[in-house]
AEC family transporter
Amino acid sequence: MSLVSAFVPIWILTAVGYAACRWGLLGEAAASVLGRFVFHLAMPAALFLALSRMPLSGFAGRSLLAFGVSTAAVVGFGWVGASRLFGREPGERPIWGMAAGYVNSANLGIPIATQVLGDVSFLAEVVLLQVLVVTPVILVALDRHSDPAGRVRVRRIASLPVRNPVILASLLGVACSATGLHLPSTASASLTLLSGAAVPAALVALGASLHRTAPSRAGPAEMAKPAELAVITALKLVAQPVIAYAAGLALHLSAPQLLAVVVCAGLPTAQNTFIYSQEYGVGEAVANRAVVVTTTLSLATLAAAATLLG
């Protein structure tokens, strides 16, 4: 299967989700329900199985370093640029940086990795990097700016692995790999069946979410300016994969490793960006539009990147 043809099922299932939502076949809550199913059940099962079966020595250190360099560069530029270019308040800057450089490694990353890369091993490492390193930095900054006294709720940050099923499943998978623990055949078979639903359900949910158009509650000062969306989109879909590619070349990655790093770096803005913006009440309009715009355009930019590297 060529790299371009690998995207065809992704486009088809996304279109099916959009059409089903448009024609009212799945109900108004389809995108939300499917998204929760993927996030809380199917996706954790897929990541747990991938990590539990991968030896710790198999972690791609140089590839993950190249991805990490691109993430740090783009998130940092977005964080600073939100203030320097668009005058965003301190509390909004972490969301701006997250919108620019925090990839959707779960809902869209799993089907992309499965179809284009053939497995989710490197994607699982990306998930760990984001949830164990990048997410705490973002949440600490948001906590600090949301508290009148500038305090950080350490207990809340520390409990994140327990409250987030993706993080919990990833940590359990690493623990099983490190200890050599094997699940009973019945449990393993059940998780395999559940993980098989992650890709199609995630893509149908993606299509359904693209059809939803909710009116923005943001005031004039909070509205996402077209220039802001253009910069965020350029950082997310162009700058981050280009930086990842340059870092990969400098680290002498092989062609398959470069493809994996660039494809993962080119994934769109994660929905967690909007979830965190809602929870802390900052940058909601920017986060919402960034997720929609980058998700819509990413299927084309990812296909182009995969074709060039292929």
About this structure: Residues 3-212+220-309 form a domain with the Na+/H+ antiporter like fold fold (CATH 1.20.1530). Residues 121-146 form the longest helix (26 residues). The CA atoms of residues 67 and 244 lie 5 Å apart.
